[in-house]
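Long-time lurker. I teach an intro course on protein structure, and each term I like to show students one example going from raw sequence to a predicted 3D structure in token notation. This year I'd like something fresh instead of my usual example. Would anyone be willing to generate the tokens for the chain below so I can use it in lecture? Attribution to the forum is fine with me.
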Amino acid sequence: MSNNSYPCPGGGEIGRAQVAQAEACGLPPSVDMNPLLLKPTSDKGSQVVVQGKVWRNLSARELYEQHEYLREKVEESYARLAATYDFIVAEGAGSIAELNLRPTDLVNLGFAARHRMPVLLVADIDRGGVFASVFGTIALLSPAERDLVRAFAINRFRGDPSLFASGVKLLEEKTAKPCLGVFPFLDAVRLDEEDSVSLEERRSSTAPMAAIRFPRISNFTDFRLLPVMWAERPIDRKFEVVFLPGTKNTIGDLTWMRAQRLDQWLLDQHAAGARIVGICGGYQMLGERIDDPDHVESDCASANGLGLLPVTTTLLAQKTTRTVNGRTRGGQSFHAYEIHMGETSPVEAPCFAYVNGSPEGIEWNRCLGTYLHGALEDPAVIEEYLGYRLRDAPDKAEIYNRLADWFDQYADLKLFARRLAAAKS
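-- Reply from a regular --
Happy to contribute to a lecture. Here you go:
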């Protein structure tokens, strides 16, 4: 479940976390790596993406009713991957001991049990309660399920991991399972975020830029390189730039924005000299009107926009998901991607162009709107359009290599090798 997604080269979208995992493996992302993606549109409902394509909008209860069909799709994807790769890591979602969800489990121990997959249980010690978490989880499993768990790992330990040696011994005795390792908290390494929970750890009171944190915010990885303060209510200070990120419910989040009085706050920031940048849903909000005649995202057929850009948007049932190459006005090429359900027109003063010369987005009166996610992940684009020069832009390959070194340093590699050999046999 995530509103941070990315288009695959062959078409379709998957969660950003699975894209990061593919990148770390040196592989192109595939829809089979995330056959079922839930993109929340409200507190009780989600857009359901099956094997990269939008299927339906369903409530949680309706989703459970489609369990058999969705399981078939998950199994199809697994079969294709299993025919291609020697090893597959199936990352679970949530706990493996969610007993009330066991009959309809698609994303955890049910899948592992069907394929007799060896299971590694990972516990986040930074959240507290790690003894109850590890021991309690294993204790709640049936004997057959418990046999699948071959080891556990302790993650995000702050301080000297050797100080937890007695804790490891106690857990090994209580669970009769070996510990793969105690892995220290790695604060300096930033991966593409899976969901907006991570924004709680990224609050700043001194950042020169602000971004609206919508309830259904999506693809906020657009701002991962920028010094941004996330705003859920008006902030009594002036900013150089204010961003409106993407959202899974444009009209719904625009209504929320007005209820929070962030609409007037944004207009006041602009009047005081701030640049306003809207990406995807944020771009749509900056226009004069948003029409949703087919109720693609909400029950509202139309809503007035913020009026900062001379454009109108019509939401469409057909979703655009593609990777593109763009070009700035200064001639700088960059890689980007589009994930949106709507068309915005007219484009009279484009801010970007596609490589074929077609215009994209608009820049008007210190406001910029674009559908190109990822443009602001390019340091050259940031400098040209925002006048902000990054000191040290992190390289993803370097980040993945640092994570690999971190694993090698703290994991019991002999135990890991034995478990891999057993899994392959």
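Some talking points for your students: The first helix runs from residue 16 to 24. The longest strand covers residues 149-157.
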